[in-house]
């Protein structure tokens, strides 16, 4: 098989984890821990290479990606250096991609050039570098910026992996545009390997399958990276709460009233760094109407959770490109994303994705 030529939109912690994680597997030869698929359509992790990258930070633009991933405010330092990753980070338009709480940490390039000028340069860079898949790692709340990049993907023929809760794959208008161009899109809002939402979904589904009634539930998340700092701006939080809440509501046989369910980021605690702590509570009734309560505390590395999913999304997107499959990839999105075009039970989604991979790998 050939290589998968990937472009990164937003060289933050998630992108840093993706690049460093792939380097870890390449240098250690490890293949048994942390991977859901060693191969997808014949593609292995080491087949993912980074051919373009885009950011707004003054300390990242103009730098090799191998150096930019370690620049502040990034916190991921899993390997001391990465190889074969010297593509230069190019300037991206800010649009609505930088929130008020993170501006001083990101330090965007001042006096940016007109968006149409940057767009022409971006399209030229993607075509020059023969990038095939764009991975959107912009901050939550970047509606205009994500739509800008989705449009760029359509213009350049790149598959689009939308890791944030701006609704592209799950928006019919956008999905139809990708289908019309024969370009695959996976989204929206990346799940985690073992994260708060996937655990919450599993617990809620367990309760439903065992015949109980869930009366109320909440999930409270705290962390210390720029993702959580960005979400202190309430206006940027709306789509994230919708995405996470619907991921839980969709596995319950009866939707909970809005005042009986809360799922969302809750606070920024700097000392936690990339550690995310989730507190989950479910209250309900079982046999003979007897009440029960489940309380759980989950502590995870927020970025390992993301990168472990992104490597599968990238390979699924490339497989679809190889087979000429366009539009929203329903099976991959249902298994890998919180707000897919079609919500499925996780067991069903996993089964459907495995069938999809097998049918298109021949």
What does this structure look like?
The chain is of the alpha/beta class. The protein has 2 domains: 245 residues, Rossmann fold, CATH 3.40.50.720; 107 residues, Dihydrodipicolinate Reductase, domain 2 (2-Layer Sandwich), CATH 3.30.360.10. 38% of the residues lie in helices and 19% in strands. The strands form 2 sheets. The chain has a 7-stranded parallel beta sheet, sandwiched between helices. Strand 2, helix 2 and strand 3 form a beta-alpha-beta unit. Helix 1 crosses helix 10. It is globular and about 65 Å long.
Question: How many strand segments?
Answer: 11
CATH architecture of the largest domain: 3-Layer(aba) Sandwich
Helices and strands, in order, run as EHEHEHHEHEHEHEHHEEEHEHH
Fill in the CATH topology of the largest domain.
Rossmann fold
Describe the global form: globular
Low confidence ranges: none
Strand order of the largest sheet: 3-2-1-4-5-6-11
State which percent range the strand residues make up: 15-25%
CATH class term of the largest domain: Alpha Beta
Taking the sheet with the most strands, its summary is:
7 strands, parallel
* Average pLDDT over all residues: 95
Structural class: alpha/beta
What is the domain tally? Answer: 2
CATH superfamily of the largest domain: NAD(P)-binding Rossmann-like Domain
- How many helices? The count is 12
User: Rg, please?
Assistant: 20 Å
User: Helical amount among residues, as a percent range?
Assistant: 25-40%
Distance between the termini: 13 Å
């Amino acid at each position: 098989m050939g290589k998968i030529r990937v472009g990164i939109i937003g060289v933050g912690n998630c992108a840093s984890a993706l690049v460093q994680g792939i380097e870890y597997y390449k240098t250690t030869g490890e293949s048994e821990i942390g991977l859901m698929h060693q191969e997808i359509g014949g593609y292995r992790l080491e087949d993912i290479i980074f051919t373009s990258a885009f950011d707004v930070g003054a300390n990242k633009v103009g730098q090799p990606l191998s150096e930019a991933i370690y620049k502040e405010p990034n916190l991921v330092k899993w390997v001391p250096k990465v190889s074969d990753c010297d593509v230069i980070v190019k300037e991206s338009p800010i649009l609505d991609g930088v929130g008020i709480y993170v501006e001083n940490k990101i330090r965007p390039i001042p006096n940016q050039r007109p968006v149409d000028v940057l767009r022409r340069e971006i399209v030229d860079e993607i075509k020059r570098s023969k990038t095939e898949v764009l991975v959107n790692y912009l901050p939550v709340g970047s509606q205009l910026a994500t739509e800008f990049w989705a449009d760029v993907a359509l213009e350049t023929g790149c598959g689009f992996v939308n890791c944030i809760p701006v609704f592209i794959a799950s928006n019919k208008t956008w999905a139809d545009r990708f289908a019309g161009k024969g370009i695959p899109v996976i989204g929206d809002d990346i799940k985690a390997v073992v994260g708060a939402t996937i655990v919450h979904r599993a617990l809620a589904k367990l309760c439903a399958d065992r015949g109980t009634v869930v009366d109320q539930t909440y999930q409270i998340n705290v962390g210390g990276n720029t993702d959580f700092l960005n979400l202190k701006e309430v206006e940027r939080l709306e789509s994230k709460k919708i995405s996470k809440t619907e991921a839980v509501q969709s596995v319950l046989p009866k939707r909970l009233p809005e005042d009986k369910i809360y799922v969302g980021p809750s606070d920024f605690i700097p000392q936690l760094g990339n550690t995310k702590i989730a507190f989950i509570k479910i209250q309900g009734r079982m046999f003979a109407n007897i009440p029960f309560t489940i309380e759980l505390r989950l502590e995870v590395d927020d970025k390992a959770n993301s990168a472990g999913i992104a490597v599968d999304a990238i390979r699924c997107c490339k497989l679809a490109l190889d087979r000429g499959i366009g539009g929203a990839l329903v099976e991959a999105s249902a298994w890998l994303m919180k707000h897919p075009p079609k919500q499925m039970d996780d067991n069903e989604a996993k089964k459907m994705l495995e069938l999809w991979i097998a049918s298109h790998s021949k």
